[in-house]
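Try it yourself: sequence plus tryptophanyl-5'AMP, in.
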Amino acid sequence: MTRIFSGIKPTGHLTLGNYLGALRQWVEVDQHRAESLFCVVDLHALTVEHDPARVRRLSRQAATLMLAAGLDPERCAVFVQSHVDEHARLSYLLECVANDGEMRRMIQYKEKSVRERERGGSVRLSLLTYPVLMAADILAYGADEVPVGEDQTQHVELTRDLAVRFNQRYGHTFVVPRATPPKVAARVMDLQEPTSKMGKSHESGAGIVYLLDEPEVVRKKILRAVTDSGREVVYDREGKPGVSNLLEILAACEGRGPEELSGAFDSYGELKKATAEAVVELLRPVRERHRELCAEPGRVDAVLRAGAEKARAMARPTVDAAYRAMGLMMPAGGEV
Ligand code: TYM
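Structure, out:
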């Protein structure tokens, strides 16, 4: 059976980008057709300056939202990365397979390290090695597919390279996975800056729709979206990034292609109104279910505990096999 792994890092409140680029596909498609694991990748949130209490809060919120969006613990494992030691165990081994040049070429590292330096901070070593931990997340479970937005495909390519290199050097151990981004809305752009990705850790939230924004706030943000010169509503990502982003969001909400919607609106204003209403309706059930789940924190804890147990049992044999393959002496009795 196909195996799927994906994750969200708790560095900010989840956004419409996270939902359309990843979470919705996990809920609607992936969990029904494969053995799936979905993870709040909290260790990744420590790679930039962070407030410990906030990371803890956001981790719980992300897990609750994943369930609110419709991940069903009967169908998939939902868990927190730091509850399963195998991720960190394997990450070190993969650091001994990766080289520093390929880490420095990662686009996200380049962008984020510049941002950290501009803020006057130092760049944590873990920001550089982050993609290796991400590779460990995926390879520990023998995942065939990794449903992610477009911004993560370079990291999945690196994961493939590391898996192939490891297998060649030390014998076949890992499945070589592939990224499976959604067809529409694989890169939702910031509403105020439609040439940049809508990202949860941006400083100003005006161009970002958060899953827990009140409907009125969602409407306001979309109605104030930056659009392009001209008046024609056509899908052209290069020439009309603002309009194309709205078309793509609306198309994703309606389960269509953005080209199909080109020409369906007489003005930018009409497009904005339709998009705002579609997003409000898309998020309404998620917000409602989130509110209900917040009232039963014990239920979320139980799901995460069971998810971690299941994940640990799946990852351990592969990670132990990697230890043996690399030449580490296993303790008497067989297992680490
Ligand atoms: P993260 O937490 O930034 O994002 C979670 C998922 O949401 C997608 N996404 C978007 N998709 C479309 N448009 C956007 N604007 C947008 N913003 C985010 C991301 O592509 C991602 O699929 N490194 C990962 C987390 C991670 C992971 C993993 C993912 C760690 N280990 C192993 C898969 C497998 C990240 O930072 O995602």
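One thing you can check immediately is this: The chain has a mean pLDDT of 96.
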